């Protein structure tokens, strides 16, 4: 809840926004008055890693919605761009600073475009699937669904650099 977040924020090294249903997650963040405090923490430099729905929460613009959620990362995203659950797939691709990693996509978003300060870390079929802007790391895929921890280690290193 908000009180716990504000109290524990000084102890946070980083924040992971996981996959799930971004509309529901955004609504819950609003209902619990968490949207603004989390947004402020991110803009103040708290490292954050958004995977799938977490990526959507961080996007400044979502093509199918009038408003964004946290809106901290300079990118435009398209929700559910990889289609239905049956359209989910697994592949391997090069991720800058990490190497070739396994990627599991489950109805994942596509990053349609990024702003000048955003570094593209990985693409699959000419679509941006991982990127970083300052203290914000995002992936369209679910790195937690494989045994490869290198992308998580990349984020941990971001958190250590912040400390």
TrEMBL record:
GO terms for molecular function: glutaminase activity; pyridoxal 5'-phosphate synthase (glutamine hydrolysing) activity. The keyword Iron does not apply. It catalyses: aldehydo-D-ribose 5-phosphate + D-glyceraldehyde 3-phosphate + L-glutamine = pyridoxal 5'-phosphate + L-glutamate + phosphate + 3 H2O + H(+); L-glutamine + H2O = L-glutamate + NH4(+). SUPFAM superfamilies: Class I glutamine amidotransferase-like (SSF52317). It comes from the Bacteria. Its EC number is 3.5.1.2, 4.3.3.6. L-glutamine binds at residues 20-22, 79, 106-107. The active site is at residues 52, 142, 144. InterPro entries: Class_I_gatase-like (IPR029062), PdxT/SNO (IPR002161), PdxT/SNO_CS (IPR021196). One of its GO terms (biological process) is pyridoxal phosphate biosynthetic process. In the presence of PdxS, forms a dodecamer of heterodimers. Only shows activity in the heterodimer. Belongs to the glutaminase PdxT/SNO family. PANTHER family: PYRIDOXAL 5'-PHOSPHATE SYNTHASE SUBUNIT SNO, PYRIDOXAL 5'-PHOSPHATE SYNTHASE SUBUNIT SNO1-RELATED. This is Pyridoxal 5'-phosphate synthase glutaminase subunit PdxT. It comes from Streptococcus pneumoniae.
